[in-house]
Amino acid sequence: MSNNIASKAVSGLKWGSTATVANAIMQIGYTSAMARLLSPEAFGLVAIASVILRFGSYFANMGLTKALIQKENLEPQHIRAAFTASLVLGLLFAGITWLLAPFAAAFFKNPDVTPIVQVMALSFIINGAAVTSVSMLERDMRFKAISILEVVSYVVAYLGAGILLAYLGYGVWSLIYATLLQAAIMALGAYVVVRHNVMLQLRLAPYKPLFSYGSRMSFISFLEFLSQEFGTILIGRVLGSYKLGLYNRAYMLINLPMYMLTRTFTKVIFPSFSKIQNDIQKLGSIYLSSITLLAAIVIPLCLGIAVAAPEIVRILLGEQWGESVPVLQVLCMALALSFITMFAGIVCDAKAILNVKIVLNVVFILVISGLFFLLREYGLVGFALAVLIGEVVRMAMYQRVMHNVLQLPYRQQLSIYLPGVINGVLVALGIYLVSSLLRSADAPVVLTFAAQIITGAVLLLLLTLLFPHKLLRTELQMLFNKMGFNGEGTSTSSRFIYKYILKEA
């Protein structure tokens, strides 16, 4: 990776991490407030509507987002073609969704879904107009602008309009209007920053290279969507919107922090991988480094959340959401594996190895479908167990792909999980001991939760900074060196990092 790309990547991580922390804090407040203002059924209705819309979203975009980022030589005619196609497809799918909404609602046996889907169909038009601007920002690795836009749009739409509308009694519509407003603010802001040509492209030639890659990416994204949302589809149809609301909130409690944590990496990694897609050795090295660092954070965080699940649900959602606790505990490790494995998928995207990825996702869908059938008698927990087992299978399949594509030995691929697993077990054990002590003493739930957070944070920092596994130490050395922590600075943080991480013990 050239110095310029590395510098942009590090800058992207810094800005993305700042936005991630801000968004994570806001997500916690928003989730807590809305869970108290709205019923589980409201979240279930939105979950059903979101699944229906996502069916069309992958084909409405046709993979143009990643096509713009992945293409090595991008010309103005390609930008115009992407904008034209995205806008036309957005209008088309908005109309189709409006017409088919009653039939989709009939599938889920809930007529209340129809008007929600029809209004949310406007998101196709908004996203169609915005996708080119956002893609250009990501391609140019302008993550500072993206981070600012995301924070501002979230504050205005969700913390402002969403909570206010819920308080005024708009019910499920407060969730809908907040979502549309956030998308509109993001779209307008991205265009103001980029200001690309919005003249329609009438020549067909510029569309060919974009759709050649983008159409396959769109199909792959659709398959990944099916694998991720299969539980939502089945629960919504078989168990109804109430049970789906319980599952959805448990899923979101772990998915949101994981998404916020990994989205910074993925936004930076995909354009970075794309720029070095032909250098297998360098790509393999960065791939291993990325997973080592991410696993060292994600696995301890997920195991800690699993132990603290009873307090998390009671504080963030309320007493009426108690049934979500065991579901959340099972989903914790499933989503940890999902977000870590995602990096193998990004390698395939960057190198345009898409046919293999299609086959892999089809196999995964078949596997998880069978698991859902076998474990259906265990209810919501059974669905969560099916997701966990399915993610283990997917990880094994992706390791086979990386073995062939990047020539990485299986033992080396498995070893990079070791620092995260060791730290995760120790963090979870510490939180469990503190939790057991306070629960047996009937301590207030807020006090127990605070003790869990402090215990987990302190243990993770100690294990990461003072006693890092040798694999993790090596990766931290490279990362902090690029960030300028070389022992020459005068700040306390620079000296501390150099003493305990960069300087060999």
UniProtKB/TrEMBL annotation:
Parts of the chain that traverse the membrane: 42-60, 81-104, 116-137, 149-170, 176-198, 286-307, 327-346, 358-375, 381-402, 414-434, 446-467
Keywords linked to the UniProt accession: Cell membrane, Membrane, Transmembrane, Transmembrane helix
The UniProt record lists the keyword Repressor: no
Pfam families tied to this protein: Polysacc_synt_3
Entry keyword annotation includes Cell membrane: yes
Superkingdom of origin organism: Bacteria
Subcellular location: Cell membrane
Bilayer topology annotation: Multi-pass membrane protein
InterPro entries per record: Poly_Biosynth_Transport
Sequence similarity: Belongs to the polysaccharide synthase family.
PANTHER family: LIPOPOLYSACCHARIDE BIOSYNTHESIS PROTEIN WZXC, PST FAMILY PREDICTED COLANIC ACID TRANSPORTER
Protein name listed in UniProt: Lipopolysaccharide biosynthesis protein
Organism: Pontibacter aydingkolensis
